[in-house]
Design goal:
The structure holds 3 protein chains of 3 kinds. Chain A is an all-alpha fold. Chain A has a single domain, classed as MetI-like (MetI-like fold, Orthogonal Bundle). The radius of gyration of chain A is 28 Å and the shape is flat. By secondary structure, chain B is mainly alpha-helical. Chain B has 13 helices and no strands. Chain C is of the alpha/beta class. Chain C folds into 2 domains: 220 residues, Rossmann fold, CATH 3.40.50; 98 residues, no CATH class. Chain C contains 13 helices and 13 strands. Chain C has an 8-stranded mixed beta sheet with strand order 7-8-9-3-10-11-13-12, with helices on both faces. In chain C, a hairpin with a 2-residue loop joins β12 and β13. In chain C, α4 packs across α5, α5 crosses α7 and α7 packs parallel to α8. In chain C, 50% of the residues are buried. The model of chain C has no long low-confidence stretch (mean pLDDT 87). Chains in contact: A-B, A-C, B-C. Chains A and B meet through α5, α6, α9, α10 and α11 of A and α1, α5, α6, α10 and α11 of B.
């Protein structure tokens, strides 16, 4: 590079004006990305979260396809081979009734994952609607709706779950119903809080000035802008739903035999822990790995979707 | 301040009433009532009638509800329908001390480890200490407590024979139950503390503290801590609830004669009256803890007084 | 000649971000004399605040500041540790921030926030610190200071909070006060009061002041000397009158044209946006927006051109061959 100063001679051609094209070239902005593009890029960079995503995808595929490929059925008993350790024939061993633990674990995955996803999805819908309406309408409607939530949330959710399970009997449907009665509260509160802050923002006001209806403002500005937080909250609902199903089943009031859930399998395994620890090990590992992966996904999403650190 | 506290108390009372009502009617909606299961199939109809009469089960539901409320107001949580001379109050006075001791130790342990660990992770963000504590914390929230209980029991009691497997006869007996119960909470508090500390450290006033020449240790340990501990205080309420329900598992696995175990047994025996009574007791306990936490919060965060 | 209490030589600050290394400050040198007030002006993102935060060791972790030397009352503070720097922060150098709403700790009372530096730096005990804090609150014009001490930031108005901030910054009688946009977040009427207060405090305590602002109007009401920053470098420096009447840089001229003067003259905005500091231009940072720009401006960074003893500007328009070819540029 040439160094010039006020004493040096400067070549004549450098003294010409900058042309318009050169100016243009200079002022081209970096390509800008949408919020979701940036978030996805950040998420992809997060190795733990991507690892979690891969684990969950693999787990889901196994849960769907796995049992079809296996020669055993989840409730197929074999009294000659009971309480076996892992072998080529039974990858994860067999339980007290000689059922194949591998197939049962995969069946458990079906139940746990579907409970997790369905519970989260239902709760997201209820929570977003309830919170959105309360937050957007505000005033006395909000007051009443939120007092109801306050009272409901005062009641510990697990106690609810236990009562409903005792009342409705043990089945996937009653677990789901019980969870739907309690979980939406967190989402609703969060959404309401978000909407409450967002509707004070200038762009919501701008929408109002431009003559958009309340409904349009709610669906076009407020809900999309709180989508990041909603997704994060819902992602964390999935592991807690799985957790609580396992908990209930472990207490003996969740999924009933011969159906297999990870919680039931662990519960059954306790008695034979000293004879066959593997019986406990595999379902326990399955729960832990799943929840581990889901938590990492949730963490990754939270970081990726955080609008405050989203500038670059 | 006073208005805020009164508002909280009213909300807590309503929650409790709602819990009682809900519990009561759910129990009574169970088809056939408590004496309809297979166990009583051979009992003559007349005897069943008499038993039902004895427990007041033939009265209209609202009469039963009112008398139940009256009993509750007197502090009487009901008696078992399946076992003679077996009242909920007795169960509570028998089981509460053990559960409370373990629960209290677990809370203490969780706070003492979780808060410093989360703070360290936030301050050393991106460094090794952060990575290690985050992995531990994520393991902690990912492993269900029953898995942890059973595996540690298998390892320390069965294999290594270091610790006793049941009872509460010596200090050694407390290690595993308290440790297992606290582990998940430590993990949760660590995560909570880390994210709230990170949030606080991003705030403008932290730069102000530094510009005043406050040493970093005091900036973190005094000025940032008081701000970032607020979510942990809020979590204390639900934490008590989680620990109480956690006792269900811990006491089942470690055979500790506590509240949780009675609860699980009652559920297993389908003993509705006892379940109902214990539910209300545990529910009330949690609601009261939430109330206390809310009041503590108002003292720590001066903004509450006018904001809410 | 007054003593130079702060002398910064070739300060460079970079930030590590996901997108790459942002060169926020690219070699600035300036000085502050004792008792004077220096203004730093420039638009958002030009590096004014980062410059001062670098000097005070108050940057975030992803930032790195380097300098040939930063001399503060005879000590090179560019090489001391942050821990040692904290002994000077709040004691010999006070700082006021832009937004008084977020700059005070919401969960500590005013008393706790003002007494802590007093007890640390002046080694006062609690009652002494309290007494001193009361005095300070009175000095900065806070009514009924006794009751204000017990209050929390959310109970005060924006103007009062900024007064509290000034009280905190001035409580140890610092040699240098750095005010980063102290009036930007306030109402116009309160702005004037705060500026008056700062002027009064400066006289009373004989403190040197560095006032950072994007508003030349605010700067001119308090400062005698001004630095104009653009794209992470200083483009012009001089006494306030020199800058107004002998403007030496097109960017300064642009800033001057965008101050409302109330005489009916039309305001002229500066078109375009500041340069991308991820890949700063090798020439003059302002070239892309400058109506006088030549090919030369994009090729080489203009060095300092001395206009008089205190006044210099970094612009190729002062080069003899440029003047020979195009004549004296009319900047205003």
């Amino acid at each position: 590079m040439n160094t010039y100063n006020y004493e040096t001679e400067i070549p004549e051609e450098l003294l010409e004006d900058i042309t318009e094209e050169e100016r243009e070239k200079e002022s081209i902005d970096r390509t800008s990305f949408s919020y979701w593009q940036i978030s996805w890029r950040r998420f992809k960079k997060d190795k733990l979260a991507m690892g979690g995503l891969v684990v969950i995808i693999v787990m889901t595929l196994c849960a769907v396809i796995g049992p079809m490929l296996s020669p055993y059925d989840y409730d197929q008993t074999d009294f000659i081979a009971i309480l076996q350790g892992p072998s080529a024939k039974h990858w994860f061993g067999t339980d007290l009734l000689g059922r194949d633990v591998f197939v049962r674990t995969l069946y458990g995955a079906r139940i746990s994952l579907s409970i997790g996803f369905v519970a989260a999805a239902i709760n997201m819908v209820i929570g977003v609607l309830y919170g959105g309406i309360a937050g957007y309408l505000g005033g006395w409607v909000d007051m009443i709706m939120m007092r109801i939530v306050d009272v409901l949330s005062g009641i510990p959710s697990l106690i609810y779950l236990i009562l409903i399970m005792m009342f409705m009997g043990s089945s996937i449907q009653s677990i789901l119903l019980a969870m739907c009665l309690t979980y939406w509260i967190t989402t609703a509160r969060m959404v309401r809080g978000q909407i409450f802050t967002l509707r004070e923002q200038d762009y919501a006001l701008a929408g109002k000035v431009c003559g958009q209806s309340k409904w349009q403002i709610l669906t076009q500005h407020l809900i999309p802008n709180s989508m990041g937080s909603i997704i994060v909250t819902v992602t964390f609902l999935i592991p807690s739903a799985i957790f609580e199903e396992a908990f209930l089943s472990f207490l003996g009031i969740g999924i009933q035999v011969p159906m297999a859930s990870w919680g039931t399998m662990c519960n059954d395994a306790i008695q034979y822990l000293t004879q066959q620890p593997c019986l406990m090990l595999f379902p326990a590992l399955a729960i832990s790995i799943t929840i581990f992966a889901l938590n990492f996904i949730g963490d990754g999403l939270r970081d990726a979707l955080d609008p405050r650190i989203n500038k670059q | 301040m006073v208005r805020y506290i009164i508002k909280r108390i009213v909300a807590g009372f309503l929650s409790l009433l709602m819990l009682i009502t809900l519990t009561f009617f759910l129990m009574h909606a169970i088809p056939g009532g408590p004496f309809s299961s297979d166990k009583y199939r051979k009992t003559p109809q007349a005897v069943l009638e008499q038993i039902q009469d004895q427990y007041g089960l033939n009265e209209p539901v609202y009469v039963q509800y009112i008398s139940y409320l009256q009993n509750l107001a007197k502090g009487n949580l009901g008696v078992s329908f399946t076992k003679l001379n077996y009242s909920v109050n007795d169960l509570i006075s028998n089981g509460m001390p053990a559960s409370a001791k373990i629960g209290f130790l677990a809370i203490l342990l969780a706070l003492l480890i979780g808060i410093p660990l989360g703070t360290t992770a936030a301050v050393r963000r991106g460094h090794l200490a952060d990575g290690v504590s985050m992995v531990i914390a994520t393991v902690g929230v990912s492993v269900p407590s029953f898995v942890l209980c059973v595996l540690t029991m298998y390892l320390f009691c069965d294999r290594l024979k270091l610790l006793p497997t049941y009872g509460l006869s010596s200090w050694k007996c407390y290690i595993l139950p308290v440790g297992c119960m606290a582990f998940g909470q430590i993990a949760y508090i660590t995560r909570l503390m880390r994210s709230s500390m990170l949030e606080t450290l991003r705030q403008d006033f932290i730069r102000t503290e530094r510009s005043k020449g406050i040493p970093e240790l005091a900036v973190i340990g005094k000025y940032a801590l008081k701000n970032s501990i607020l979510p942990v205080i809020t979590y204390m309420g639900p934490m008590v609830a989680t620990l109480l329900t956690g006792t269900f598992i811990i006491e089942k696995v470690f055979s500790i004669p506590g509240l949780g175990r009675y609860f699980v047994n009652a559920i297993g025996d389908r003993d509705y009256a006892v379940t109902l009574g214990l539910t209300i007791f545990v529910g009330a306990l949690i609601i009261i803890c939430n109330l206390i936490v809310d009041i503590i919060y108002a003292f720590v965060d001066p903004r509450v007084k006018i904001d809410r | 000649m007054a003593e130079k209490i702060l002398e910064v030589k070739n300060l460079r600050t970079t930030f590590q971000t996901l997108a790459g290394e942002v060169k926020a400050v690219r070699g600035t040198s300036f000085y502050v004399e004792s008792g004077e007030s220096l203004g730093i002006v420039g638009e958002s993102g030009c590096g004014k605040s980062v410059t001062m935060l670098s000097i005070l060791h108050l940057l975030d972790e992803n930032a790195r500041a380097e300098a040939d030397a930063i001399n503060f009352v005879g000590q090179d503070i560019s090489r001391i540790t942050t821990k040692e720097m904290r002994k000077l922060n709040g004691y010999k150098i006070g700082m006021i921030f832009q937004d008084p709403m977020t700059s005070l700790n919401p969960v500590f009372s005013i008393e706790q926030q003002i007494c802590d530096p007093l007890m640390r730096h002046l080694k006062l005990n609690r009652p002494q610190a309290r007494k001193k804090a009361l005095e300070m609150l009175e000095t900065v014009g806070i009514p009924s200071p006794e009751s204000r001490l017990k209050q929390y930031p959310h109970e005060l108005s924006g103007g009062l909070r900024q007064r509290v901030m000034i009280a905190i910054a001035m409580c140890c009688n610092p040699r240098l006060l750095i005010a980063d946009e102290p009036t930007t977040a306030l109402d116009v009427t309160v702005q004037a009061q705060i500026l008056d207060l700062m002027k009064q405090m400066k006289e009373e305590y004989d403190t040197a002041v560095v006032l950072i602002s994007h508003d030349l109007g605010v700067i001119s009401s308090l400062c005698s000397r001004v630095i104009v920053m653009y794209g992470g470098v200083i483009v012009e420096e001089g006494l306030i009158d020199d800058l107004f009447y002998e403007t030496g840089h097109p960017y300064t001229a642009g800033l001057l044209r965008s101050i409302p003067r109330g005489d009916g003259e039309k305001l002229v905005p500066i078109d375009g946006t500041p340069p991308d500091l991820l890949n700063p231009p090798k020439g003059c940072p302002f070239a892309a927006r400058c109506s006088h720009a030549m090919k030369l401006c994009r090729e080489a960074m203009p060095p300092k051109y001395p206009m008089n003893e205190h006044h210099y500007s970094c612009c190729w328009l002062h080069h003899p061959s440029v003047i020979a070819k195009r004549g004296e540029a009319k900047l205003i």
